[in-house]
UniProtKB/TrEMBL annotation:
It comes from the Bacteria. The gene is mcbR_2. Residues 9-76 form the HTH gntR-type domain. Residues 224-242 have a biased composition (Low complexity). This is HTH-type transcriptional regulator McbR. Signal peptide: none annotated. Keywords: DNA-binding, Transcription, Transcription regulation. CDD domains: WHTH_GntR. Pfam families: FCD (PF07729), GntR (PF00392). One of its GO terms (molecular function) is DNA binding. The keyword Transcription regulation applies. The lineage of its organism: Bacteria, Bacillati, Actinomycetota, Actinomycetes, Micrococcales. Residues 213-242 are annotated as: Disordered. Transmembrane segments: none annotated. InterPro entries: GntR_C, TF_FadR/GntR_C, Tscrpt_reg_HTH_GntR, WH-like_DNA-bd_sf, WH_DNA-bd_sf.
Length: 242
């Protein structure tokens, strides 16, 4: 885990940002225990701003607190996946139709550039860069929709959506990651078509495919894929013994 030291100014804010990015990058994996004392040592601060940061991240849904067991990075459940993907579909369908109404060549060029950078990163095997650009692409769409009240209402969802995007990218093998990057051009094509129904359909398919990839990575899916009791070997056995 590569957490960087943070200065004293606005410590709680900076700790929150550092931990959030560590979760998004996978340095703090789903299910990882978050011990205030150890995190404070790594970040070079006291436990108080760490506690405040964990409270904020719990409100964002990125951290969960378990009775008598402290805090851990929230793991994706099947219900989480269904709720996030269905809500994201609804919101981003609204977004693409808004963007479509104000579409121009400059906007298309900006989005195409981001997608090309994403494809290039996927071909280089840089999964972290693909995730960053995937997030940027969808954030650009939200910005282009130019709906201030929507942005205010959904601000608390942004962390969950970003977590969804990270998990969806992690679930891809290198070849599939390139194909996934290229699918963003289909979204641009659909918006550029001027057909609202086509734009909504393509966005729904894009999100649905990501959700399907993640089903086996939910807590329930991983439990089903786990070996039967007594069958653990290798790394699994070592982990179970800890």
């Amino acid at each position: 885990m590569a957490l960087k030291s943070v200065p004293d100014l606005n410590v709680a804010d900076r700790v929150t940002v550092e931990l959030r990015e560590a979760i998004f990058s996978g340095d703090l994996a789903p299910g990882s225990r978050l011990v205030e004392r150890k995190l404070a040592e790594r970040l070079g601060t006291s436990h108080i701003p760490v506690r405040e940061a964990l409270t904020r991240l719990t409100e964002e849904g990125l951290v969960e607190r378990l009775p008598h067991r402290g805090a851990r990075v929230a793991a994706l459940t099947s219900r989480d996946l269904e709720e996030i993907s269905s809500l994201r579909t609804l919101l981003e369908q609204f977004v693409v139709v808004r963007v479509q109404a104000e579409w121009d060549a400059k906007t298309e060029a900006r989005l195409r550039k981001t997608v090309q950078q994403m494809v290039d990163a996927a071909e280089r095997g840089s999964s972290a860069r693909v995730f960053e650009l995937d997030r940027r692409f969808h954030e650009q769409l939200w910005e282009l929709a130019d709906h201030r009240m929507l942005m205010t209402i959904t601000s608390q969802l942004r962390s969950r959506i970003t977590g969804f995007l990270r998990a969806a990218n992690v679930a891809l093998d290198p070849e599939a990651r390139v194909a996934h990057a290229e699918t963003h051009n289909l979204i641009i094509d659909a918006i550029a078509s001027g057909d609202p129904e086509r734009a909504r359909t393509v966005m729904a398919e894009h999100i649905g495919e990501a959700a399907a990839r993640l089903e086996s990575h939910t807590e329930e899916g991983e439990a089903e894929a786990s070996p039967a009791p007594g069958a653990a070997t290798g790394a699994v056995a070592v982990e179970a013994a800890r």
